[in-house]
Amino acid sequence: MELNRRRFLGLTGAALGAGAxxxxxxxxxxxxxxxxxxxxxxxxxxxxxxxxxxCEQACNQVNHLPEPQRPFDDLTVLDxxxxxDAEAFxxxxxxxxxxxxxxxxxxxxxxxxxxxxxxxxxxxSACIVGALTKKxxxxxxxxxxxxxxxxxxxxxxxxxxxxxxxxDPLTPRVxxxxxxxxxxxxxxxxxxCAQVCPVEAITFGKRSELIKLAKRKMADDxxxxxxxxxxxxxxxxxxxxYISREPFAKVGFLKLPHQPMxxxxxxIQHGIFSxxxxxxxxxxxxxxxxxxxxxxxxQGEDKS
Amino acid sequence: MSPRRKKFLTVWLVGVLVGLGLVLYAxxxxxxxxxxxxxxPKAFDPVAAAKKWKKPPPPPPPKVNTDGTPWVPVDQVAALxxxxxxxxxxxxxxxxSQRERRLRLGDKMPKLADMKYPYxxxxxxxxxxxxxxxxxxxxMHKKHAAVLxxxxxxxxxxxxxxxxxxxxxxxxxxxxxxFNPELPGRLGLKAALHRQCMGCHEKRKQGPVGCTDCHAxxxxxxxxxxxxxxxxxxxxxxxxxLRCHQDAANHLQSAAHWQWKGPSPFTVDAEKRIDMGKANNxxxxxxxxxxxxxxxxxxxxxxYGWSNAEFDFNDQARMDCLVCHDTTGTYRKVPTAxxxxxxxxxxxxxxxxxxxxxxxxxxxxxxxxxxxxAVKHGDMNGILYYPSKNCDVHxxxxxxxxxxxxxxxxxxxxxxSLSLPVAEGSRTCQDCHTDKPHNGNSLLDHHLNRHVxxxxxxxxxxxxxxxxxxxxxxxxxxxxxxxERKPKKDRYGMPDYAWKKGEFVWKESMKPAYAxxxxxxxxxxxxxxxxxxxxxxxxxxxxxxxxxxxxIYPFKxxxxxxxxxxxxxxxxxxxxxxxxxxxxxxxxxxAPVPDKVIDQAWNKAFAKGMAEAIKVNPHNxxxxxxxxxxxxxxxxxxxxxxxxxMPAKAALGCAQCHxxxxxxxxxxxxxxxxxxxxxxxxxHRGTDFEWMKxxxxxxxxxxxxxxxxxxxALGYKGDPIVYGGRLKKLPLASTIDRECK
Amino acid sequence: MxxxxxxxxxxxxxxxxxxxxxxxxxxxxxxxxxxxARYIGGLGAVSHLSQSHPWGLWIGVDVASGVALAAGxxxxxxxxxxxxxxxxxxxVRPALLTALLGYVFVSLALVVDxxxxxxxxxPMIFWNPNSVLFEVAMCVMIYTAVLHAEFLPVVAERFANxxxxxxxxxxxxxxxxxxxxEGLLAFLNRNLGKVMWVFIIAGVVLSCMxxxxxxxxxxxxxxxMHALWYTPILPLLFLTSAIAVGFPMVxxxxxxxxxxxxxxxxxxxxxxxxxxxxxxLGIYGALKIGDVVARGVWPLIFDGSVQGRSFAVEMLFxxxxxxxxxxxxxxxxxxxxxxxxxxxxxxxxxxxxMNVFLVxxxxxxxxxxxxPSVGELAITAGxxxxxxxxxxxxxxxxxxxxxxxKEANS
Lengths: 304, 741, 410
Hints:
The structure holds 3 protein chains of 3 kinds. By secondary structure, chain A is α+β, with helices and mostly antiparallel strands. Chain A contains 9 helices and 9 strands. Chain A has a domain at 40-120 and 174-263: Alpha-Beta Plaits, CATH 3.30.70. Helices cover 37% and strands 14% of the residues of chain A. Chain A has a 3-stranded mixed sheet with strand order 8-1-9. In chain A, strands 2-3 form a two-stranded antiparallel ribbon. Chain A has a two-stranded antiparallel sheet with strand order 4-5. Chain C contains 16 helices and no strands. In chain C, helix 3 packs antiparallel against helix 5 (89-113), helix 4 runs antiparallel to helix 5 (89-113) and helix 11 crosses helix 12 (306-327). Chain C is globular and about 70 Å long. The chains are: A alpha+beta, B alpha+beta, C mainly alpha. At the A-B interface, helix 2, helix 6, strand 8 and helix 7 of A face helix 8 of B.
């Protein structure tokens, strides 16, 4: 009895250990995701944005969203910090960082918030049915026909972007910026917000070009910008990029790791499930144990 | 289960179900109570009145000039044509700093005088493609250049690399479509314009930066938005409008166009009052006053059915949205039906094509004040629907809509008048043209800009009023009632008499009355004591020669004879229109009408008129019921002239006012005649009354006239160049006899 | 593997509608009403779920805790069948039933929780192998099927004979169907035993996979998780805690059932069983403590925050104290202290799952803080009540329990 228990425990431990050890070893081999090389992006220059909310309005129009409670030309909504929701895929927030203009007035910084369209999106990795996918043109696209409404994407998103239609009893959708997928799929198409922006605070183009442009802007106007292109490296890179005069932490941006969010989970998943080696080994191990223990019992019963 | 437990469970279950029901009920909101239909006004049925009016609604004014040729706002069309050009894209620009550029150009720097296009419209298909939320922007190119003191490179920041390219190449040459992958970082036209404008305005803390400070919002197509049954009534239309625009109704509810009264910040002794207006206590020497005459007068009210003192101004369903927002040009109100529109109009179609007001919407009331076209205002009449550039440079040359100057916020329309106390904001020429409006940077401009402290712009820039259509300048009510008297046509084709109204004088291209004016107005209101032995100034501008805030303004002086209470010494309100009114009483009588009958009719009209006036002014202690005795008094009213400004070249010239410059010796007395300027020609430039006469204008009296303003009448000793200015001595007097070299 | 031996239905031996059962029925009806409300007004009408807190009580308790507490099924099956400890067989069937019902109700809770309930089948068609949730869903689905297979002998045993007899005087189609059903059941009854080993091992493998998988779920959101819980070994912690809670859960339900039906308990089996728990819980506790120490985040426990206190409660009352208690034979051998210790372990796991899914989840832009609404609580309570009623119903009519333990002991 004592011996058996010890052996049982040992086996359990071994099985667990094998599972645990298997993970890192397989990491590099298992996950070979490459972000789309030709993805579009948008570069938002926060030092240019005037906070007019036209992007919100254009977004509302091109996505056929319901009319908001307060009209788009009511700039007092900026008094509150808002988040994108099921009826507004993008919002502008206003921050006072303490910077003062020539007249010694507090100078506002406006920040456009929308889906960042990660290069390696956590939501797409998380989605149980693959309703969210990273498209070659850069958009993280939502396919409502697959969605089951589990909201794991919302849990996974590091930017807290996907929103949910909580008051729809049967067909709620996850709602977020579409990157105007249909529009930018067409030749010369532009996202609604970027197109309408009166000051081109948003520049639309190839992501790789935009990073170059951002760096050039920084070099051309030394001291104007923080030396960081937000979204170049964050969570493995995002299609939406930001440059700012103010420190990003002061204007509502999160400090995020450079490693893509799905890295750990997918490494574990692929580590365990490549060729189903881990479950199959465990199955074999337990089968063996069962054979051993039951033969012993049969013998024991014979004796009694 | 025991019966007790069963009972307990049943009660519990029923309770939960009821609770759930209540929650659902609350969730959906209580069933909206159907609003009771607004009670029809007892005495007056506007629909019946509208039916009684047999004539069809007048057609929209034709879009033609007075000679029948198609009307074209020339400057606007030219600017738009230029704006719509898309030149070939400039790819390469010269890489140089502003310093290098200045060095390269030396004294070949572009100058203000080189400017070819003083007025631009910022409108381009490239921009419209990107978004259609706003209308195009008018851009005063020359004014900007003047403010920047000719620093063209502030905006024209780069030059195309091509050798022969202009130093002041236009924006669209380099800035075209946004996000051109070939030119990363090159701004599109829309962003280039916005950044240049807003950036500079912000930097200089001067100029507009909000969207609607420059643009008008585009009105979305209402064909799909407006859902109405066929043949809707006006109240149904309003209800449909308010479905989306409830805030508009809330704004209008406190606005002057709905209340016909409001704040009177510019009326002497009533600066803090907010309850004065046509609705209750103003009086004039045209149709006199509103009380007792509602259905006729309120045909210009932005509402339906204001037919007596009991009208409910809280009833938003009675607001008339279409009268201001119709864009078909067909909407008209029946002249006698308390604001009710013509019954034969297709209100559904009109409601589905609403938009920003045009001159037509405003003009249908404001051009027609006093009972007909051009009657009341000296500077507003039906010509302004489609005026020539010479008649009004803004509306005719550049197709201005009224609200482009009369800035409107929340249905409060800025602008003020002498005739009415209500003002919801004030506008002046300088709001756009700055305090130094003569921006040519020349010697002459320098002198002209010094006039701004003493003269209102229109004083020079519109030397005559009613220049294209005659306006009424005299109205004698005491002659009314004689149905037998045949009206004669004057030289403008206007009748000199109407039995309903009395005797008139009309005048076209009239020289204004000039007076010092500091913005304040003295008024005689209902209930104010008058002295019948003198001319009663119903409205009078406040100001004086020594008042630095006063400037010389042009006015239409309206004079006439109207009734006053001989006992109470009050101006009287006659009940003219409607049953028992003066017109109805005389109308029933056969011509010739005996004086006694007219006298009785007046007595009846004044009794009723004063009774109704008291009803709408319950707190007015001065108002007294009609004593039974009336007398005729002479009254006058000053009406401000701000519209019909003429092109710059038609402004009064120096010599037309300054006698001292009319002779041979002109500017050369101070300035050495060494510049390439012909002083004499300069001094004599200005309004050409000869030319105006050839155009058919009645200006023969004005030809060759000098001392146009009549300096002595204004308080000067004479020509200020000779006798000195009003506030300081001009250094010119001593030079008056100096010889020119 | 057949365990026909001693188990028998409780029908006739005890009252079904005890006061407790009535309370459960009331809770179930209340919960049902809120479910109706959820299908009228949407999730927003009954829950406090928000854009910042997409997962709430239902995921933390109904799903994560539900799955963890159903671990009794596979641990006892492994113990009795794989490792040949047949003495534990009397508790296998009830543990199996707990697991089976547990998973059925996890699935139902998910149906309510996901927005598009009718689309719950879609993961079977649309696969995203990168998704941890997909793995969990697949395992849960297959494992639920496996549990049904494992439980089938119980049904077969009950109905193998006597279906036909009870329907003898009905019309012929009914009789024919009954005959066919009886034939099938009899066939299964005869042959299931031969392949049952596959299901048993598969059950254990699948359980290991998805128990750990549940832990991996939140690994995708490192920036949103409190450091006390966010650890790369979270899957391992979930697995070890699930294994550790298996036997205490058996103790818990066994004690409850025997109390409710007034049966004699199986203290000898349970006491022996929890000796293994000392090791399993020890492993879990050691991993957990080792983890916070190795990552150097342990000072956060004492920073006075809600999270720190929750972690302390979880570890102290859920792991350390019950573990120490179990070291004492006095505790192990006596019904009440053993029940208390088991309750603490079970509670500890529930608290752990709630901590991971609710307390540790800190959205960067909290729109509103999350606390379960009345609706969420009522629906969760309703599900637990239905589960207990279903358990009661099943043991009432099917041979799950070995009543009175008389035959077993003899």
